[in-house]
């Protein structure tokens, strides 16, 4: 280490452990607090190993010495450190001198953790793995913990002596090169100072890849900006003789006419769904309709502020003029000056419009929509009806701009209302799943046709009579009798839905209860082949009236035109892919052919709307329970393609659990090794029960997409449903590799 590195490390360690100078010492409790570990086991083990003189406290010199070993020591030193962490009976490094570097020797530990003989027995290993599970927020039965312990122990105990020596642990680690590679990082990443050097990066929006992949969106945006400039200029020039203030007000007013009518076009869900099936979907950025809707909303706020400000300044000037017969407040708050084409109400309606627009803007922000107050956003957004009415009264020409899009919008609403009332739909089954997910099974009317990944608006009068909420359909279109919805409780309405069915009787059918129950149970047994959950205390049979508006298309409709599709879902964002994966496997099985003599199977190259050759499905969850509600479907998908193993998987699953510590963390190395060994032995993952191994931590997106590109299965398209923050990261990676990127929006 050079002097600069020493100084930075000293400053960082002092900050982390709140050590003001070299004479200060820290005890075990301060050490635990600084490490921020969930389980005290590892803090105690590290503390005992760092306390080289056995004094019960760690000096700054001892801490820096251990840090020097973990960062700059050789692999053997680091393996010895790892071994002693696992040797619970306790051997410690001894006789370390800061002046001589990392010259450590093995010696008996005088810490309260006990003494040992330099080997790890099964009970010690079980204690370590149990602490690893708690650190990674993984809950497994005691029997499974025993299986993990024995799997790792039997693999490492080469001489069957009943204990693992240092040499045996080293040999076992050699089987996991990725662990050995990351050990140097994991040994010190929690004490390593953050890098202060940041590589200068070109802003993403200025890169050639961004312009290449977003040319359609940028072209439409350029046309939109050009139209606003043109309309503003023409309107301003028309009133050139009236002065600058009137020119600005009229120019802003004309742009408001255009934007307040154009925003209606982006609300035509049925028209947009129809356009997705035409060639225009390849030209127009229909998938960005929500983004454009938000953009126009901000533009409306800006132009309304500009328009209002120009008029207010003009009123102030008029009130101060010698020829004025009205005061400033009369211009602003009365109809006496006669400004406006409907009884001089332009000023009053303008003030009300400004207030309504600001209310809509604030209540549309993400901190309102995503903080459990969707109803606030929903009801305030209905103010658009009042705004349109006031705009017609406020401006003499607005009705001309609104006529065509307004008529289409009215027809869409009428058609949606009629279709939603044509069939008497009912919720016939409810499953209350983990993570407060409500699985609704709705009777499907014969005329209801949809595509995988489509969404509907749901109204349940028993929950809220006038509220409609959007949810993705999680069942495949090939499932003829029912429609599935999976709804996570995140807001007031969804929480009321979950609590309503949680408090209901297991069978809530009213008249002829037993007769209806028998029919539904037989229907349940018949549909169990498709993977629903078995009857239990969280399973309800019912007959609750509901209404559906839709279906409406999403970017995922393009998936069947992909050659290599990558589906990425985060948390409940998996719901559109539930429908898609089922439909993909159904169509794939339909294409398969079998030889009656040798049982060889292959897929016919039928060039219809199904062009997919490979599907990668990536699901990222925070905790273990979030996997449970979707595992039954994934298990069925794995079984459906089990016979294709010799020819390679058509569908490849990738599961990630972000709360689990990754293999580059010393507190998880042993657990991840044990999980790997047991998964190979049992041919299933201990966390989900799938054949696919659940990976700890977050995906390394660079490696993920490089692997996809290297497979060369055809044109790659990435489909994502999840948080906006992750969407930006994924889109950036896709732009670098020229992958098409689509994200789900509501």
UniProtKB/TrEMBL annotation:
The chain crosses the membrane at residues 218-237, 295-319, 339-364, 376-395, 401-419, 565-586. Residues 38-73, 144-179 form the EF-hand domain. GO terms for molecular function: calcium ion binding; oxidoreductase activity. It holds the Pfam family NAD_binding_6. It is found in: Membrane. It comes from the Eukaryota. CDD domains: EFh, NOX_Duox_like_FAD_NADP. The keyword Transmembrane applies. Residues 420-558 form the FAD-binding FR-type domain. The keyword Chloroplast does not apply. One of its GO terms (cellular component) is membrane. It is a multi-pass membrane protein. Keywords: Calcium, FAD, Flavoprotein, Membrane, Metal-binding, NADP, Oxidoreductase, Transmembrane, Transmembrane helix. PANTHER family: NADPH OXIDASE, NADPH OXIDASE 5. This is Predicted NADPH oxidase 5. It comes from Monodelphis domestica (Gray short-tailed opossum). The gene is NOX5.
């Amino acid at each position: 280490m050079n002097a600069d590195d020493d100084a930075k490390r000293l400053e960082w360690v002092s900050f982390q452990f709140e050590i003001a100078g070299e004479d200060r010492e820290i005890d075990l409790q301060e050490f635990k607090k600084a490490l921020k570990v969930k389980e005290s086991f590892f803090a105690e083990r590290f503390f005992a190993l760092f306390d080289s003189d056995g004094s019960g406290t760690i000096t700054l010199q001892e801490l820096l010495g251990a840090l020097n070993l973990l960062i700059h020591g050789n692999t053997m030193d680091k393996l010895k450190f790892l071994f002693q962490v696992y040797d619970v009976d306790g051997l410690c490094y001894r006789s370390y001198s800061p002046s001589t570097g990392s010259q450590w020797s093995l010696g008996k530990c005088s810490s309260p953790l006990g003494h040992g003989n330099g080997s790890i027995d099964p009970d010690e290993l079980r204690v370590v793995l149990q602490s690893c599970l708690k650190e990674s927020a993984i809950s497994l039965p005691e029997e499974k913990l025993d299986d993990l312990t024995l799997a790792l122990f039997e693999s490492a105990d080469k001489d069957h002596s009943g204990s693992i020596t240092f040499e045996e642990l080293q040999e076992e680690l050699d089987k996991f090169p990725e662990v050995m590679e990351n050990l140097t990082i994991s040994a010190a990443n929690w004490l390593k100072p953050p890098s202060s050097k940041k590589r200068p990066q070109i802003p993403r929006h200025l890169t050639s890849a961004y312009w290449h992949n977003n040319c359609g969106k940028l072209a439409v945006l350029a046309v939109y900006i050009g139209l606003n400039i043109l309309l503003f200029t023409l309107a301003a020039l028309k009133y050139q003789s009236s002065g600058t203030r009137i020119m600005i007000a009229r120019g802003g007013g004309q742009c408001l006419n255009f934007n307040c009518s154009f925003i209606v076009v982006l609300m035509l869900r049925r028209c947009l769904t129809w356009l997705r099936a035409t060639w225009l979907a390849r030209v127009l950025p229909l998938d960005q309709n929500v983004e454009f809707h938000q953009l126009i909303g901000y533009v409306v706020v800006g132009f309304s502020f500009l328009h209002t400000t120009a008029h207010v300044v003009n009123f102030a000037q008029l009130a101060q003029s010698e020829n004025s017969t009205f005061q400033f407040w009369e211009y602003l708050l009365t109809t006496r000056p006669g400004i406006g084409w409907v009884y001089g109400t332009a000023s009053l309606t303008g003030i009300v419009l400004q207030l309504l627009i600001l209310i809509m803007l604030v209540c549309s922000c993400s901190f309102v929509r995503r903080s459990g107050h969707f109803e606030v956003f929903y009801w305030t957004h209905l103010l658009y009806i009042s705004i349109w009415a006031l705009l017609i009264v406020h401006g003499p020409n607005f009705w001309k701009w609104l006529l065509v899009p307004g008529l289409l919008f009215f027809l869409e609403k009428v058609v949606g209302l009629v279709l939603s009332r044509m069939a008497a739909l009912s919720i016939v089954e409810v499953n209350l799943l983990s993570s407060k997910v409500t699985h609704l099974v709705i009777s499907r009317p014969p005329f209801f046709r949809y595509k995988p990944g489509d969404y509907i608006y749901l109204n349940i009068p028993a929950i809220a009579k006038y509220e409609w909420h959007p949810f993705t359909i999680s069942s495949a279109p090939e499932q003829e009798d029912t429609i599935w919805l999976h709804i996570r409780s995140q807001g007031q309405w969804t929480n009321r839905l979950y609590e309503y069915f949680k408090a209901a009787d297991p069978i809530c059918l009213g008249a002829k209860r037993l007769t209806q129950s028998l029919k539904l149970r037989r229907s349940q047994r018949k549909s169990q082949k498709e993977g629903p959950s078995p009857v239990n205390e969280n399973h309800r049979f019912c007959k609750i009236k509901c209404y559906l508006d839709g279906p409406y298309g999403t970017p995922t409709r393009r998936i069947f035109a992909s050659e290599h599709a990558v589906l990425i879902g985060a948390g409940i964002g998996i719901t559109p892919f539930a429908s898609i994966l089922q439909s993909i496997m159904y169509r794939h099985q339909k294409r398969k052919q079998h030889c009656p003599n040798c049982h060889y199977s292959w897929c016919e190259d039928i060039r219809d709307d199904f062009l997919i050759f490979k599907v990668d499905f990536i699901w990222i969850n925070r905790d273990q329970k979030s996997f449970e509600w979707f595992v039954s479907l994934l298990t069925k998908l794995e079984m459906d393609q089990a016979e294709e193993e010799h020819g390679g998987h058509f569908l490849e699953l990738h599961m990630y659990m972000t709360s689990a510590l990754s293999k580059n963390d010393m507190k998880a190395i042993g657990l991840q090794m044990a999980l790997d060994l047991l998964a190979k032995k049992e041919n299933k993952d201990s966390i989900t029960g799938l054949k696919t191994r659940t990976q700890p931590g977050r995906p390394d997106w660079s490696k993920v997409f490089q692997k996809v590109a290297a497979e060369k299965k055809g044109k790659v398209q990435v489909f994502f449903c999840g948080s906006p923050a992750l969407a930006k990261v994924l889109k950036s990676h896709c732009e670098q590799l020229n992958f098409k990127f689509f994200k789900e929006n509501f």
